[in-house]
């Protein structure tokens, strides 16, 4: 008789302890799990022009960076024929934020899109607008070389 009562008590203790911990605690993601999530969503971009210059480590850095107060206009960073890239990047970054448990605000998503496009453009093409670093560098060079 005591054996049946003892088995039932152990079962009840295990049941209650498991249910309490799973509901109360939110499990923190490890760095490896965060990287795996970003790599999973960045995988379709690896074979594109963006994937040549930006890797999942960069995207993870952009996602986990502190949000800055700025108006991220990325239209001047797009090449001809890339009108659909911001929409698909927006959807991927939104999914990454949800899986990483980061607040997915428009400001955060536009910050990541801007950072990805800016890094690509820093290496592969020169924009002659006021935002690219070569603009001010070229002006300083021409000022210093006046005879």
Describe the structure.
The protein contains seven helices and no strands. Helix content is 65%, strand content 0%. The longest helix has 23 residues. It is mostly helical. Helix 2 packs across helix 4 and helix 4 crosses helix 6. It starts with a helix and ends with a helix. The protein has one domain.
Concise account of the structure shown:
The chain has 147 residues and is mainly alpha-helical.
Low-confidence stretches: 19-24
End-to-end gap: 106 Å
Rg, Å, rounded: 25 Å
How large a portion of the residues is in β-strands, by DSSP E? under 5%
Estimate nothing, just give the exact number of structural domains. 1
Q: Sketch the topology as an H/E string, one letter per element.
A: HHHHHHH
Which structural category do the helix and sheet elements fall into? mainly alpha
Shape designation: elongated
Count of individual beta strands: 0
What's the tally of helices? Answer: 7
Mean of residue pLDDT values:
77
Helical proportion, percent range: 55-70%
The biggest sheet amounts to: none
